Amino acid sequence: MLRAASGAAPGLLLAALMLAGCGGATPPEGHANATMQEAAVTAGDVSIRASVVPTASLNPAVADRYGIPPGPGSVMLLVGVRQGPPMREAALPARISATATDLRGVRSRIEMREIRTGDLVDYVGTLRMRPPETLRFELQVEHAAGAPSRLTFSRDIYPQP
Asked: Is residue 56 a part of any domain in this protein?
């Protein structure tokens, strides 16, 4: 037989029931597109774009091109620095310092390396992590075309199906 609780117990019961519904790591609709959404900053005619991709979702050709083994438990940070008007941009060599901070406040440095494909130059790094996780990325970008730029963005990372 159930009977009404008194005092603080109803609030605790309600909180427990609400938290019980949050226990799964089920990603929201459209999470893959949100994870890979590009973050960008523009300073003058220089644009910096960054995207984060779970390595488990990399197809073999992309993984091979970037030298990253696809698999669970890590993400790839991809950064491009370009100069010039849209659709006529040229790759701009840069030096990139990158970190990621998780929700516990643990900050990890991401080693970035240069990848050349024809006339394009991109920078790639990987970070080991355990999804689900929210990561805050901070990039410091130095290039010959002007003052250093900073790009900060967050991404929610979910387990890959």
From this structure: yes
Both tokens of 33, joined, read 């597109």
Q: What are the start-end ranges of the E strands in 44-132?
A: 46-54, 74-83, 90-91, 94-101, 107-110, 113-117, 120-128
Dihedral of CA atoms 122, 128, 130, 131 in degrees, nearest 10, equals 0
**Does position 32 have pLDDT exceeding 60, yes or no?**
no
How far apart CA 83 and CA 47 sit, in angstroms, is 6
Mean pLDDT of the chain: 83
| Phi, psi angles (nearest 5°) of residue 58 | -75, 135
pTM of the model: 0.78
Which residue segment(s) compose the domain that 107 sits in? Answer: 36-157
Tokens 């929210």 found at: 134
